[in-house]
Write a structure and sequence with these properties.
heterotrimer; A alpha+beta (314); B alpha/beta (447); C mainly alpha (332); A: alpha+beta; 3-methyladenine DNA Glycosylase II, Chain A, domain 3; two-stranded antiparallel sheet; 10 helices; 9 strands; 11% strand; elongated; B: 447 residues; alpha/beta; Ubiquitin-like (UB roll); Rossmann fold; 3 domains; six-stranded mixed beta sheet; four-stranded antiparallel beta sheet
């Protein structure tokens, strides 16, 4: 009996002392935080992807509160939550936000195993950045995808995967939040976060090769050789520019007329999520049959017309 | 016998071409001169398509202070000034020359007579450095750091001695060894020139004890040259690392970056560099050729070739009996630090000390297993780092922690990966981490 | 070119060391002591050893295949077999076999695989298994047959040197120590105890083999043994109820622990400095637990405790960096 009593007293005393210690500690070391930070954090996706440019969601929340105190939320965007989340944030902070168009990550390389044969075998740690240290990589293209999946590792949303047949990453547009983590992880800046476009339809140059046409053409069947035909056909809208032997389509100016796709001698320009073309009698190009969901369906027939390599060496 | 204090490994030597005399390689049909043959700013091409050049004609001028000019090693016509694949695996600016005959610039003294320092009393420190700079000499052990930069210590730092790196700790390579056996006097005069250029009176030549004939010969010859001492070193890789060599020879350790080897008062030059310095200063010959070891277990005739820069590697292999059928990997340099080549058509450069052909079986890495934390990499690291940790931090992309763990001190010698029982690609990740952390540090200091 | 060239980053050569070589190397080092235990304890020892090794390998295989669902088979790397051998060395040779199977299950299942397999575990699996058995089956685990009896189960049991030592301390009577065998006898192995504890000499021989093969470095075994010698020696000088330090070193599982258990790669510190600290602490803890603890043997507890401190030692004990000494001198 005595023993039980002693045990109860001892344990009770220990509990009491600990409780008091904890109480004083929590009082003494309490950190005062702007409660709005917590509120803002609560509506954020909490993926801590860093797509906003801040270290994690709480960092972004802190930046929002600070910006709100200064009077404007301009320049702050959670790419994952997009417009709805930013509206909620603005509500909490008593601000308004302007509308922004949704974006998606696009892999600008079509150098599949078939288009771009492997010349050597890389044996080492499976990381694009490690492969970058051996120079050009396994293929003859100095700008194309390494296919080791640094972007896949960087994605927090399971939205990008390497296709085992093409060895190229493919973006799942449903899941992609345009946070830009993959674009940042890519050592060759192949991935671009682009405007999704009306009805998710867009025109993209699926190539990143800045070499001269002759070299680009030699090592990859699907490369842009910088011939400038697309630029000429787009004179009206001026959406296409060719810099350093590489064509680029400005998504804001592009009117989705698909003329560039037609004239590209190497089939480097792809129309994504567009309905299949009606075959035209005079159309020199085979009709594109890109499936509407898969953005860069590897089975899409390439226009493998023999190219005039000299045509671009002006 | 002296050696460096921390870590180190003992790879199999495999010096197949040891004792082979230096053989002159044939002239190539076409030579390609990369403008990126050294560390620092690339050279700027000064010739254009159609220009006629001779041996020793300037092709590219130095692109800055930390840079070096490039000279033609053949005579003929410039056929292309364009990007070309080089030994680093990148397409970069290069000058291609179609070879016709073998005509030399008249200013080059092609006689074999030895010119001693006493024969040339007119040379002072400034002239020597200037000549080295004009000749385009870079560190020929493989680092390819422009030599004249090394000979101009930053203000406040004073050189006390010159150490010649004759260690050649890389397995297979014998280029420096054969050079010492055939050109001992020239190397010693070259060392004297370096000593004069930096105004010191003490010179050391560090040679590993696996080359007793070279140690004997150099010791005999060095007796005639005041202030020069041959230091035999106990064999251990990576003794040829600049920091390890200074530690081994004079017992001083270079502190962590940003400290430089000159902080210990030592200037290290490779044997090949000394020979090139001799030729540049005494014979007025710019850096246009070098000794290269072409070797491999399956190769018919492992040899030491004196080859013109710009010669394609495939030609050098042909001269040593052709490419073996079971070739799996071709390495520019030695097996521990060399770079695997993407193509055999790339040309040799100023830093090409060897060409190693590995058969298919040797070439493949064994599959990696989980780290068993055996600490063998920690024991092998000559820089006192923890490779297992650095590699893991780089894999997890924790750059801050990697920086705290001194990842930038890594000299990429490969001892950790060499010794790892789990065959982990430690150095792959450490390299990735090191380059990323260096980038972060540069960005920070630029702010 | 028909054959594609292989490219990879340097180094392009490897020293040829492998996990298997190291694991089987330790097994070879343990072979003489194993044979000695078979000689001293007879068929019982053989049965214990076989059960332990086979069940460890089986559990590793079963867990990798059915629970973790990994395709890579790890049973051939030798680590599970080594755990089995070490576990058996820590058991009395007359232990019922089902207890051994249970111990193997705990060692591999809880001690190793829950952490993710080889290289990830915090505690030495064999020791985890032993401590689990020691706490769960204290009677069976501390009833040792007399060495030299060639029978199983019905063997006579006797007091081990360790329990004699503890009796001496608790009774305060130094004359109890006279029952101890001489240091020489203990070195060669004429004492009762767990299977692997019989012959300190053969264990040392195996340790020398491992040092020669560069499987382990000297730091951990030497620091443990030296600490125990010094600490026990001081106690012996202060009060003769504490046993002669040589007898302390050669008794019980100290040799086995110092050379084979504490040197386990996965659970010991990485830097030489850290390994010395680790060894010294194990030595101190062992003597403290042996002399003043509830159990006569403190080695396994000491190693398990220091295993827990290994991450901390790794964090604070970095190897001496190249050039660090110079930097300090300049700073002065």
């Amino acid at each position: 009996m005595n023993l039980i009593l002693l045990a109860i007293i001892a344990l009770g005393a220990i509990g009491l002392i600990s409780a008091l210690l904890l109480y004083f500690a929590s009082r003494k070391f309490a950190v005062h935080e702007d409660e709005r930070i917590g509120q803002v954090s609560a509506v954020l996706p909490q993926a801590n992807c860093g797509g906003c440019g801040f270290p994690g969601c709480s960092g972004f929340a802190g930046a929002c509160v600070k910006a709100a105190d200064k009077g404007s939320l301009e320049g702050l965007l959670c790419p994952v939550g997009g417009q709805p989340v930013m509206e909620q944030v603005a509500d909490i902070l008593g601000m308004t936000v302007e509308a922004s168009a949704p974006k998606v990550a696009v892999v600008r390389c079509n150098g599949s195993c078939e288009n771009r044969p492997r010349l050597v075998t890389f044996d080492g740690a499976q990381s694009c950045k490690v492969q970058q240290m051996i120079g050009m990589g396994e293929t003859g293209c100095s700008y194309g995808c390494y296919g080791c999946g640094d972007c896949v590792a960087a994605c927090q949303f399971d939205a990008i995967h390497i296709n085992p047949t093409t060895l190229l990453p493919e973006v799942d547009e449903e899941k992609c939040t345009a946070c830009g983590a993959c674009a940042k992880a890519c050592p060759r800046q192949i991935i671009e976060v682009r405007l999704k476009g009306p009805k998710n339809r867009r025109m993209v140059v699926l190539c990143n090769n800045k070499d001269k046409g002759a070299i680009a053409n030699k090592w990859c069947k699907a490369s842009c050789i910088g011939c400038g035909k697309c630029q000429k056909v787009c004179e009206k809208f001026e959406a296409i520019t060719v810099t350093k032997n590489l064509a680029y389509i400005d998504a804001e100016k592009c009117k989705l007329c698909r003329k560039c796709e037609e004239v590209c001698p190497k089939g480097a320009i792809h129309a994504i999520n567009m309905p299949p073309r009606k075959p035209k009698a005079e159309a020199p190009v085979a009709p594109k049959t890109d499936a509407p969901v898969a953005p860069k369906a590897p089975e899409a027939p390439k226009t493998e017309t023999p190219t005039n390599a000299n045509g671009n060496e002006k | 016998m002296k050696t460096f204090k921390i870590g180190g490994v003992h790879p199999e030597e495999n010096k197949l071409s040891a004792g082979q005399p230096i053989r002159e390689a044939q002239l190539p049909k076409q030579a390609v001169f990369s403008m990126f043959q050294h560390i620092g700013a690339p050279a700027n091409a000064v010739v254009k398509r159609g220009d006629v050049v001779k041996v020793g004609t300037l092709l590219g001028e130095a692109g800055g202070f930390v840079s070096a000019p490039i000279y033609s090693s053949v005579s003929g016509k410039v056929s292309k000034v364009d990007v070309a694949l080089d030994a680093s695996g990148l397409r970069r600016m290069a000058v291609t020359v179609d070879v016709e005959g073998d005509e030399w610039e008249e200013s080059i003294d092609r006689s074999k007579d030895l010119v001693k320092l006493s024969d040339r009393p007119d040379l002072d420190a400034k002239t020597i450095v200037e000549k080295i700079k004009t000749a385009g000499i870079v560190g020929m052990g493989g680092a390819t750091f422009p030599t004249h930069v090394k000979l101009c210590p930053p203000p406040g730092k004073v050189a006390e001695c010159v150490i010649v790196n004759a260690v050649e700790c890389e397995p297979y390579l014998t280029a420096d060894h054969s050079l010492m056996l055939e050109h001992a006097d020239e190397i010693l005069v070259g060392l004297q020139l370096v000593m004069k250029a930096v105004n010191v009176t003490k010179g050391y030549i560090g040679i590993e004890n696996n080359k007793p004939d070279a140690i004997k010969l150099m010791t005999e010859k060095a007796a005639q040259y005041p202030g020069i001492e041959v230091v035999p070193l106990k064999m251990k890789y990576p003794q040829g690392g600049e920091k390890q060599l200074i530690d081994a020879v004079i017992g001083r350790q270079v502190p962590a970056p940003p400290a430089l080897p000159i902080d210990t008062g030592a200037i290290v030059q490779n044997v090949g560099t000394c020979f090139a310095i001799y030729e540049a200063v005494m014979k007025n010959k710019p850096l246009i050729d070098r000794v290269i070891t072409v070797t491999g277990k399956s190769l018919k005739q492992p040899s030491n070739l004196l080859a013109r820069l710009g010669t394609p590697f495939s030609q050098l292999i042909d001269e040593c009996g052709g490419l073996p059928e079971d070739t799996g990997k071709v390495i520019g340099g030695g097996p521990m630090m060399g770079k695997a080549l993407l193509s055999l058509d790339v040309p040799m450069t100023k830093g090409s000390s060897g060409l190693l052909i590995m058969n298919d079986k040797e070439a493949r890495r064994t599959e990696a297993e989980p780290c068993i934390r055996c600490a063998k990499c920690v024991g092998a690291c000559p820089m006192g780092l923890e490779p297992y940790l650095l590699s893991k931090l780089a894999e997890q992309r924790d750059w801050d922690a990697a920086e705290r763990e001194d990842i930038t001190s890594c000299i990429e010698c490969g001892s950790c990966q060499f010794t790892c029982p789990s065959h982990r690609p430690l150095l792959d990740y450490i390299r990735l981490g090191k380059s990323t952390v260096m980038g972060i540090i540069r960005a920070r200091s630029a702010k | 070119m028909e054959n594609k060239l292989i490219v990879s980053l340097s180094p392009h050569v490897h020293g040829g060391d492998s996990v298997q070589k190291n694991m089987y190397g330790v097994c070879i080092a343990l072979l003489p002591a194993m044979l000695a235990s078979f000689y001293f304890f007879g068929m019982g020892a053989v049965a214990v050893m076989l059960t332990s090794v086979l069940s460890c390998v089986f559990f590793e295989w079963a867990i990798t295949k059915f629970i973790l669902k990994r395709n890579r088979l790890t049973i051939l790397d030798g680590s599970a077999a080594l755990t089995g051998v070490l576990l058996a060395f820590n058991l009395p040779s007359n232990l019922p076999l089902w207890i051994i199977v249970l111990g193997a299950l705990f060692a591999i299942g809880v001690g190793k695989m829950t952490f993710g397999g080889l290289g990830q575990n915090i505690f030495n699996p064999a020791l985890a298994g032993r401590v689990f058995l020691l706490i769960s089956f204290p009677v069976q685990m501390t009833t040792w047959p007399v060495s030299g009896e060639m029978s199983y189960l019905d063997a006579q049991t006797a007091a081990t040197p360790l329990s004699i030592m503890q009796t001496a301390i608790s009774s305060g009577d130094a004359s109890v120590l006279n029952q101890l065998p001489s240091s020489l006898e203990m070195l060669i192995g004429q004492t009762g105890g767990s299977m692997g504890e019989v012959s300190a000499l053969l264990l040392l021989l195996g340790c020398a083999f491992m040092l020669w093969k560069k499987i382990i470095t000297w730091h951990i075994p030497v620091s443990i043994i030296a600490t125990v010698l010094v600490f026990a020696g001081l106690l012996h000088l202060a009060n003769p109820v504490y046993a002669n330090p040589l007898q302390v070193v050669f008794s019980g599982g100290l040799m086995l622990g110092a050379c084979y258990m504490a040197t386990d790669y996965v659970t010991s510190p990485m830097s030489h400095k850290g390994q010395l600290i680790y060894g010294v602490c194990i030595g101190l803890l062992t003597v403290i637990i042996r002399n003043w603890g509830a159990y006569p043997e403190g080695m396994s507890f000491a190693i398990i405790i220091m295993n827990a401190f290994t991450p901390l030692i790794n964090t604070y004990c970095k190897p001496t960096r190249f050039g660090e000494v110079v930097k300090k001198e300049v700073a002065k």
